[in-house]
C-alpha cells in the first residue's frame, strides 16, 4: 500500500470513529471512549487535515460542534450558534494562544477574563423583558432542544431577572451541572430504589435534564453557572467580558466566584495553577479553565475560525480517565471484614499517576458494570481518591468471552465463609478477629496518625507482628517487649530476604525497637475522641467521635449510652447510634476494651457531660429516638402528655390515648418484649442520673459573641470552616449547621449554596471572612 493511501485510510477511519463517539456522547449520553482518548484522535485528524487540506471530507467532526438532538423534544434554532472552544493542554499551547492574540490585536500585553470550565451541559436561556421564556440545549450548535419546562425547575435560575433595567432580549449562555454532593445523594436514592446509578455528575445532570417529565427533573438538584451572552437587544453591551459577568450577577444569574482578570501568558498560567490546587475542594467538577480576551471590542476584532472563537481557549486539566486492560480480579479484606473486589490493571498513566489497581467497590458493582478478566476498561482517578473502574468497553471484550466474575465463597486470607446479609451491598468475611487480614487492618487503623498516632508502626511491622502471632488485639501492642520486636524483625527480614549484613555478623540493632516502644508508650494518653475513633466502630469517623467526646465527656458514659440517648446528640442518626451501642454491647469488644484499659491506656481530659445535654434529654425526643415503629415525635408528645417514660414502661394497653390503630398495635407489640421494656426503664434512669449530675442552668457562655449563633457555608479564603468555627466558639459564639430565623450571622465563602439563599430569604446578616474577622477583632478589644 502506498503512503498516500495510508493517510487517506487513516483519515476516513478517524472521521467515522469520531462521529460515532460524538453521537454516543452527545445524543445517547453513553460515552464509549474517555475524553482524553477522543481528544487525541481529534487532534490527529486536525493535523492530518492541515497537512492534506484537499482530503478533508465534508462530514468531518472538526467542522461541526456536536451531533443532532434526540427527536422527543421540540427543536429550537439558536439565533446565534453555540460554538465550542479550542483546547490547550501544555504551557506551550497557552503561550501560542497568547502570542496569536497579541499578533491579531497588534498589542503588547493583553488582559484576559479567566474562569472555570464547568463539566456539565451547555445551555442557552432566553429572557424577554427580564422574563425567562425559553431554555435550549446546545444540540449540534445550530439547533438544540427546548427544555424550558425542565429548566424552570432549576432553582438557581431566576424566572425573572433582578432590577428594573433589564434588556428587551437577553440570551444567557452557561452550564447546567450537578454538585458532587447532590450526585452522591441521587445515586444513593437510585440505589435504594433499585434504579440505575449514574457514572458521574455530568451524566446525572444530562439524565436529569433529558426527562420528558419535568417533575422528575424537579427532584434532581441541578445547578447553573452563566458564562456568556448569546444575544442582546435593547441594552448596551458591556465593554468587557468581566463586566458581563458582573452584570449577570446583578441580574440575579449565578456566576462562579472563581473568576479573575489576569494579564498575559504568565497571568493565565498562574490562574490555571491556583485553580488546579483548589479543584478537589470545589463542590462541582471542572475539566479545566477557560481564558477569554477581556475587551469585547478585541473579541470582535479577533473573530472566529470555523468551529471556535480565536479570542478564547479552554485550558484542560490532564485527563483523569484512561483505558487499560484488567489482568486479574482479586479481593481485599477490610477492617470490618468487608470483601472488596479489586481490579489488577495493566499499568496506565492517569492524569500523570501510574495506576495498577482500581476498586470495583462490591459484588453488585462488578455485576452492574459486568467487569471480567481480560476486559478493556475505563479507569478514573479523581483527586486523591482510590482509582475506580468506570465502565467496560464491551466492543473490546476478548473472544471467546471470559467468564462472569463471582466473589469467592471463602475468605482468601483465613478461609472463613464469606457472607452477605440481606439488603447489604457488602459481603463480609465471617472470621472476625480470627482473620489475620481483619486483625491487621484493625491494628493499622488503631495506630494511624489521626487515631492513636503510634509513630514508626508501619504496615510491614504490623503484618509481621500479626503473622508471628505476637499480637491478636490492640491491647497486645502495649505488652510488646524489646525481645518480641527483635524476633519480629528477624522473621520479617528472613521472609523478605533483607537480613542486613550487620545482623548476619551477629550485631543487633535495637535503636529502632527502643524508639517504637517509646512511641507505643507515648500513645497511651490520647484525647477521648481519638481513642473512640481508633476503636474502629462501624460508621464512627472523626466527627462522630468528636461529638461523642464533646457531649458525653467520658469513655464510661459512651460505653453505657443506649442508642436512643446517642440518637439525640447532634448529627447522629439511627444507624450510627445503633452501631455504637451494638459495638459496646458486644462481649468480645468489651473484653478487648477492658484489656486495653488494663495496659494503662486512658483517655485524657475527660469531663462531665456538656451542659447543653440537658435540653436534649427531653422525654419526647428520647421516646421518639427509641425507634418504635410508627412512633413519630408529635405522636410521642401526645403519648407522654404528663406521663414519664417509666409510666409508659408499666402500661400494657395503649388504645386509650386517641392514637391511630396501627400505632397502638405497634406500641403494644413493642412493649410486649421484656427487653424493650427494660431498655425503656434503663433509659429513664440514665436520664434522671444525668440530669442530676448536670449543672442546673447552662452557664451563660462568656465572650463578646455570647448568645450569637453562626452558620458557616462555602469555602473561606484563608481558613477552613473548622478554624473559623473554633474562633467563634472561643469568643463565646455558637456554630450551627442550619440557618433559621434565630441565626445571628451567616458567614459565606466561595460557592456558598442553599444556606446563603436561605439567609437572604430570612434576612439574616451575611458576612464574608473579612467581616467575621472584623467582628472577632471587635470582640477581642
Ligand atoms: S464559552 C464560543 N465558558 O465548554 C465559546 N464554555 O468547548 C462558548 N464550557 O459547549 C463557550 N465552561 O459547554 C465557555 N466558562 C466557560 C465554560 C464553557 C464550560 C463548555 C461549554 C461549551 C464547551 C466548549
UniProtKB/TrEMBL annotation:
CDD domains membership: BRCT_DNA_ligase_like, LIGANc
InterPro entries attached to this UniProt entry: BRCT_dom, BRCT_dom_sf, DisA/LigA_HHH, DNA_ligase, DNA_ligase_AS, DNA_ligase_CS, DNAligase_adenylation, DNAligase_N
Spell out the catalytic residues: 117 (n6-amp-lysine intermediate)
Q: Which cofactor does it need?
A: Mg(2+); Mn(2+)
Q: Which SMART domains match?
A: BRCT (SM00292), LIGANc (SM00532)
Where does the BRCT domain lie?
Answer: 700-781
Task: Provide the alphabetized UniProt keywords.
Answer: DNA damage, DNA repair, DNA replication, Ligase, Magnesium, Manganese, Metal-binding, NAD, Zinc
What's one Pfam family the UniProt record gives for this protein? Answer: OB_DNA_ligase
Q: Any keyword DNA damage? A: yes
- Enumerate the PANTHER family for this protein: CHROMOSOME TRANSMISSION FIDELITY FACTOR 18, DNA LIGASE
Matching NCBIfam families: dnlj, PRK07956.1
As for what it does, the entry says: DNA ligase that catalyzes the formation of phosphodiester linkages between 5'-phosphoryl and 3'-hydroxyl groups in double-stranded DNA using NAD as a coenzyme and as the energy source for the reaction. It is essential for DNA replication and repair of damaged DNA.
Q: What is this protein called?
A: DNA ligase
Species: Massilia haematophila
Amino acid at each position: 500500500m502506498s503512503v498516500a493511501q495510508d493517510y487517506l485510510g487513516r483519515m476516513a477511519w478517524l472521521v467515522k470513529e469520531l462521529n460515532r463517539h460524538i453521537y454516543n456522547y452527545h445524543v445517547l449520553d453513553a460515552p464509549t471512549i474517555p475524553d482524553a482518548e477522543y481528544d487525541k484522535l481529534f487532534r490527529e485528524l486536525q493535523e492530518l487535515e492541515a497537512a492534506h487540506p484537499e482530503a478533508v471530507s465534508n462530514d468531518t467532526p472538526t467542522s461541526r460542534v456536536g451531533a443532532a438532538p434526540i427527536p422527543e423534544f421540540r427543536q429550537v434554532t439558536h439565533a446565534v450558534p453555540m460554538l465550542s472552544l479550542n483546547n490547550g493542554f501544555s504551557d506551550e499551547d497557552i503561550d501560542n494562544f497568547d502570542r496569536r492574540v497579541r499578533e491579531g490585536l497588534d498589542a503588547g500585553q493583553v488582559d484576559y477574563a479567566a474562569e472555570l470550565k464547568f463539566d456539565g451541559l451547555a445551555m442557552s436561556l432566553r429572557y424577554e423583558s427580564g422574563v425567562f421564556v425559553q431554555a435550549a440545549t446546545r444540540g449540534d450548535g445550530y439547533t438544540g432542544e427546548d427544555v424550558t419546562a425542565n429548566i424552570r425547575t432549576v432553582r438557581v435560575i431566576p424566572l425573572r431577572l433582578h432590577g428594573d433595567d433589564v434588556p428587551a432580549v437577553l440570551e444567557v449562555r452557561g452550564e447546567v451541572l450537578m454538585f458532587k454532593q447532590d450526585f452522591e445523594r441521587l445515586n444513593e436514592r437510585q440505589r435504594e430504589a433499585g434504579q440505575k446509578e449514574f457514572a458521574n455528575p455530568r451524566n446525572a445532570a444530562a439524565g436529569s435534564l433529558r426527562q420528558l417529565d419535568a417533575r422528575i427533573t424537579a427532584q434532581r438538584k441541578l445547578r447553573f453557572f452563566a458564562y456568556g451572552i448569546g444575544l442582546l437587544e435593547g441594552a448596551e453591551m458591556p465593554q468587557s467580558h468581566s463586566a458581563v459577568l458582573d452584570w449577570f450577577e446583578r441580574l440575579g444569574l449565578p456566576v462562579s466566584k472563581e473568576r479573575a482578570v489576569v494579564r498575559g501568558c504568565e497571568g493565565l498560567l498562574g490562574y490555571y495553577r491556583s485553580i488546579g490546587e483548589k479543584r478537589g475542594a470545589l463542590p462541582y467538577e471542572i475539566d479545566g479553565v477557560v481564558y477569554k480576551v477581556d475587551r469585547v471590542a478585541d473579541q470582535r476584532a479577533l473573530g472566529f475560525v470555523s468551529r471556535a472563537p480565536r479570542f478564547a481557549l479552554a485550558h484542560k486539566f490532564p485527563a483523569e480517565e484512561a483505558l487499560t486492560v484488567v489482568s486479574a480480579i482479586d479481593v481485599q479484606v477490610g477492617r470490618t471484614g468487608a470483601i472488596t473486589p479489586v481490579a489488577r490493571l495493566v499499568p496506565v498513566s492517569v492524569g500523570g499517576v501510574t495506576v495498577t489497581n482500581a476498586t470495583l467497590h462490591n459484588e453488585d458493582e462488578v455485576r452492574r458494570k459486568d467487569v471480567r478478566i481480560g476486559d478493556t476498561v475505563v479507569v478514573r482517578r479523581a483527586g486523591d481518591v482510590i482509582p475506580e473502574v468506570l465502565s467496560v468497553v464491551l466492543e473490546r471484550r476478548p473472544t471467546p468471552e471470559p467468564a462472569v466474575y463471582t466473589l469467592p465463597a471463602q475468605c482468601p486470607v483465613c478461609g472463613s465463609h464469606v457472607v452477605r446479609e440481606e439488603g447489604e451491598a457488602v459481603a463480609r468475611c465471617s472470621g472476625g478477629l480470627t482473620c489475620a487480614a481483619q486483625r491487621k487492618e484493625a491494628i493499622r487503623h488503631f495506630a494511624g496518625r489521626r487515631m492513636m498516632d503510634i509513630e514508626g508502626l508501619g504496615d510491614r511491622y504490623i503484618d509481621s507482628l500479626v503473622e508471628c502471632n505476637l499480637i491478636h488485639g490492640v491491647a497486645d501492642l502495649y505488652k510488646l517487649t524489646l525481645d518480641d520486636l527483635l524476633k519480629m524483625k528477624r522473621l520479617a527480614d528472613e521472609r523478605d530476604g533483607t537480613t542486613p549484613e550487620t545482623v548476619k555478623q551477629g550485631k543487633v540493632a535495637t535503636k529502632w525497637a527502643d524508639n517504637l516502644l517509646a512511641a507505643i508508650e507515648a500513645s497511651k494518653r490520647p484525647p477521648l475522641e481519638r481513642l473512640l475513633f481508633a476503636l474502629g466502630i462501624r460508621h464512627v469517623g472523626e466527627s462522630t467521635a468528636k461529638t461523642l467526646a464533646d457531649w458525653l465527656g467520658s469513655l464510661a458514659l459512651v460505653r453505657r449510652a443506649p442508642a436512643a440517648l446517642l440518637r439525640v446528640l447532634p448529627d447522629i442518626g439511627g444507624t450510627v447510634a445503633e452501631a455504637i451501642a451494638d459495638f459496646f454491647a458486644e462481649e468480645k469488644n468489651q473484653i478487648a476494651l477492658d484489656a486495653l484499659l488494663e495496659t494503662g491506656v486512658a483517655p485524657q481530659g475527660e469531663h462531665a457531660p456538656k451542659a447543653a445535654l440537658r435540653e436534649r434529654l427531653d422525654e419526647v425526643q428520647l421516646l421518639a429516638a427509641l425507634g418504635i415503629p410508627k412512633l413519630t415525635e408529635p405522636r410521642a408528645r401526645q403519648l407522654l402528655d404528663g406521663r414519664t417514660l417509666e409510666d409508659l414502661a408499666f402500661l400494657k394497653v395503649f388504645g386509650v390515648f386517641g392514637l391511630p390503630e396501627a400505632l397502638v398495635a405497634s406500641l403494644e407489640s413493642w412493649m410486649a418484649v421484656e427487653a424493650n421494656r427494660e431498655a425503656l426503664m434503663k433509659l429513664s434512669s440514665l436520664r434522671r442520673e444525668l440530669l442530676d449530675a448536670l449543672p442546673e442552668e447552662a452557664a451563660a457562655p462568656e465572650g463578646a459573641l455570647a448568645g450569637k449563633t453562626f452558620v458557616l457555608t462555602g469555602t473561606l479564603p484563608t481558613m477552613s470552616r473548622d478554624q473559623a468555627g473554633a474562633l467563634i466558639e472561643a469568643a463565646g459564639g455558637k456554630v450551627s449547621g442550619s440557618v433559621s430565623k434565630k441565626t445571628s450571622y451567616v458567614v459565606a465563602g466561595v460557592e456558598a449554596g442553599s444556606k446563603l439563599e436561605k439567609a437572604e430569604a430570612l434576612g439574616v446578616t451575611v458576612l464574608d471572612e473579612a467581616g467575621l474577622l472584623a467582628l472577632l477583632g471587635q470582640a477581642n478589644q
